Amino acid sequence: IDDLLVVSRIDRGAIPVHLEPVPLKLAFEEVNRVVSIEPTFAIEPPDLTVEADRDHLTRILINLVENALDAMPNGGQLTLSGQRTASHLVLTVHDTGVGIAATALPRLFTPLYTTKPEGTGLGLYVVQEIVKAHGGTVDATSLPEAGTTFTIRLP
């Protein structure tokens, strides 16, 4: 339902973004509490903050982490990382799951496109639109049977 509400705001061109400094470690820990995972955190520097809407950042990370967990039905390693470059804050969500076929990668962020039998095809679209509302970009790289990395770049 949360994704449907966000999509309705996207369709109206109204994704309100309330920027505030969000400690990345706290954002990652919040996701950990919501989805009950034990990821590896790699944040450099450890006190790194991001100017973002806290609720939107949490939604982005939850959507990506839930997809990662779906891609690792037999377990695996999940890593959430963040670092500042000269021009961006870079967040990554990396899993060691089944990966995504090369033919599916170009369509991942298309509304209603899903590779999952029970998927809605809204999660990654919501991620993309929230990231855009923050002035950023998101992309994915993947190798079948080796895992997937989603990379978000925020100003």
Describe the structure.
This protein is of the alpha+beta class and 155 residues long. 32% of the residues lie in helices and 27% in strands. The protein has a 5-stranded mixed β-sheet with strand order 2-4-5-7-6. Strands 1-3 form a two-stranded antiparallel ribbon. Strand 6 (137-143) and strand 7 (147-154) form a beta hairpin. Helix 1 (2-11) packs across helix 4. The protein is globular, with a radius of gyration of 15 Å.
Structure at a glance:
This protein is of the alpha+beta class and 155 residues long.
SS content category: alpha+beta
Low-confidence spans: none
Described by strand count, sense and barrel closure, the largest sheet is:
5 strands, mixed
Beta-strand residue fraction: 25-35%
3D shape: globular
**Rg estimate, integer Å:** 15 Å
Summarize model confidence as the mean pLDDT: 89
Gap between N and C termini, in Å? 29 Å
The total of helices stands at: 4
Q: Would you report the number of β strands?
A: 7
List the secondary-structure elements in sequence, H or E: HEHEEHEEHEE
Strand order of the largest sheet: 2-4-5-7-6
Helix content: 25-40%
